[in-house]
Structures are given as C-alpha cells and as structure tokens.
C-alpha cells in the first residue's frame, strides 16, 4: 500500500513537471516570435533605394519573420510620410531641416551612406568636361547648344528633377549658386532620368553615382572627375548623406534593421558594390547648412 502511494505521488509530480515545462516552452516561443517578427515600410529617395532594397532582401533571408517593403517617391515624399506616421522609415538625400514643412526635431536621423552625384549627358553630345560656371549657365538656359562648350552642334535638352527631390536639392546647392534653373521637363526618379538621357539626343541631367552607366557620359567639372575619392575630400562638391529617418526613436524591429544597415556586412560590402560611399571613408563632414568641415 505504501509502495502504491509512493508511485502515485511520483506520477502526479512528474505530470506537474511536464505541464510546467510545456507552459515555459510555450511562453519562450511566444516571446521569441514577438522579438523576431514585424513589418517595416520604407519610402523616399530613389538614390538610396537600390541599397536599401538589396540590404532588405539579404536581411529578410536571415530574418524570415520580418517583412520589409521598400519604395521610391523622392526625398520629400519620404520625409512627409514618415512625419505623418504613414511609413516606418523615410529615406532622404537631404537633411530634414532642409525640407519645407518638415519638423526635423520630431524625426531621428540615421545616416547610412554617402552618395556622389554627377552631371550626365547623352554620349553623342561630344563633351566630357565643363566649368562650374558653364554647367550653371546650361541649367539656367544661357547656354543652349553643345558647340558653345566644345561639343557637337546640337541643341541642349534639359532634364531636371521635380521639387521635393533630394537629388535636385543637392545639385542646386552645389551648382546653381542661388540661380533658378530654366523650366524644363522633369522626371521623378534616377532610373527614369538615366534612360531618358541615354535615349534623348542633346540631353543633360544629373544622377547619383550608383546610376551612372556606360550608356551615358558623366561630366567632369573644372577638370575634377566624379569619383568616390574626390567626394571623400570634397574636391567633388556634389554629394550628400543618405539618411533613413524615423519618427522618434525606432521600435525594436526597426532598430535592428537600421543596425544591420550600419554593419560591416553592408558598409564594407553592399555600399561599395552598389556605388555608394561608406560614411567611415569620409575625410570631411557636412551639416544641414551645407557647411563642410574636416573630420
């Protein structure tokens, strides 16, 4: 009888232990799931878009419960949508302080790279170098034919970016010296501009380095070539940071992805491979007022 009582007690104790373990395992699984799942929506700069798209693709391979959607739309759109709370991250080529209608103090800046931008022309224009003054005169409409700057006898076709484009704001700050560009056709993405310049005789525009392909001709300015090295020391003046803004501090899921964007895997791999420049390579720094100082 005593043995039977002992056996019964052991069975009850074992059952309780198993139930306890089951509850503990279930709780741990739920906690793990909540930490590794979530959705991130990224909208904005088309100059930054290829880097974030590829990084998101790689990141989701190792974090299958994280869903990341990346779209363009321009820096102005990215900033306005992240400010309104419509998206998780707003990508921008410019500081939030530089965009009208944006309350920069409500946003948190996460710089993930630097991008150089270059004036580009149709390959048949016959021009590879211009002075800064000539480039400005082309965009204000004072120079209207490529022969005026040593090129082909062909009318110049301006292709600009729309208001709200960070690429346009960066170009104008470095080149236009406060003058207004001549009214012209506008295209809202780097990818579209690339195709238009390649296909349009006499065309000129400007692109992020990552979009400059062999189908178009990049221009040097005052004999300085648009290279990564010349950006890092500010010999090449047309460049900007690539910002990923959040409204306030990011949640855990977003913070983890932003940390990945700044990791060696991205900075020493994708950033270089896709035509961007790691912030760690910069020998100078720029503030929201475009003031450049040495690091």
Secondary-structure topology with pairs:
Layout: H1 2-36, E1 38-44, H2 49-62, E2 66-73, H3 75-84, E3 89-92, E4 107-122, E5 129-130, H4 132-140, E6 157-160, H5 166-175, E7 185-186, H6 190-199, E8 203-208, E9 216-218, E10 220-221, H7 228-232, E11 239-247, H8 252-261, H9 264-273, E12 284-286, E13 292-294
Parallel strand pairs: 1-2, 1-3, 5-10, 6-7, 6-8
Antiparallel strand pairs: 3-11, 4-8, 4-9, 4-11, 12-13
Low-confidence stretches at least 5 residues in length (pLDDT < 50)? 1-35
Radius of gyration using CA atoms only: 26 Å
pLDDT averaged over residues? 89
CATH topology of the largest domain: D-Maltodextrin-Binding Protein, domain 2
CATH superfamily of the largest domain: Periplasmic binding protein-like II
Give the termini separation: 85 Å
Sheet with most strands: 9 strands, mixed
CATH class of the largest domain: Alpha Beta
Report the total helices: 9
Helix content: 25-40%
Q: If classified by CATH, what would the architecture of the largest domain be?
A: 3-Layer(aba) Sandwich
Number of E-state strands: 13
Strand content: 15-25%
SSE string, helices as H and strands as E: HEHEHEEEHEHEHEEEHEHHEE
Organism: Liquorilactobacillus uvarum DSM 19971
Subcellular location: Cell membrane
Main location: membrane
Subunit structure: The complex is composed of two ATP-binding proteins (PstB), two transmembrane proteins (PstC and PstA) and a solute-binding protein (PstS).
């Amino acid at each position: 009888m005593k043995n039977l009582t002992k056996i019964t007690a052991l069975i009850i104790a074992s059952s309780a232990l198993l139930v306890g373990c089951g509850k503990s395992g279930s709780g741990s699984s739920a906690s793990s799931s909540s930490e590794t799942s979530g959705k991130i929506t990224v909208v904005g700069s088309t100059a930054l878009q290829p880097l974030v798209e590829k990084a998101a693709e790689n990141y989701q391979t190792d974090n299958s419960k994280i869903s990341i959607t990346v779209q363009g739309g321009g820096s102005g759109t990215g900033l306005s949508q992240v400010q309104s709370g419509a998206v998780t991250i707003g990508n921008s080529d410019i500081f939030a302080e530089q965009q009208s209608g944006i309350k920069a103090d409500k946003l948190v800046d996460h710089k993930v790279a630097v991008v150089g931008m270059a004036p580009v022309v149709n390959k048949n224009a016959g021009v590879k170098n211009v002075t800064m003054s000539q480039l400005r005169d082309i965009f204000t409409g004072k120079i209207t034919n490529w022969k005026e700057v040593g090129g082909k006898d062909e009318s110049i076709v301006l292709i600009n970016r729309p208001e709200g484009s960070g690429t346009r704001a960066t170009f104008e700050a470095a080149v236009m010296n406060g003058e207004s560009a001549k009214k012209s056709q506008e295209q809202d993405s780097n990818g579209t501009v690339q195709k238009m310049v390649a296909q349009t005789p006499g065309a000129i525009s400007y692109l992020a380095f990552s979009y400059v392909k062999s189908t178009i001709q990049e221009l040097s300015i005052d004999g300085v070539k648009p290279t990564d090295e010349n950006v890092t020391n500010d010999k090449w003046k047309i460049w900007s940071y690539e910002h990923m803004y959040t409204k306030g501090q990011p949640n855990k899921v977003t913070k983890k992805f932003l940390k990945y964007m700044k990791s060696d895997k991205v900075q020493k791999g994708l950033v270089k491979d896709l035509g961007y420049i790691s912030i760690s390579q910069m020998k100078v720094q720029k503030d929201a007022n475009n003031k450049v100082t040495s690091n």
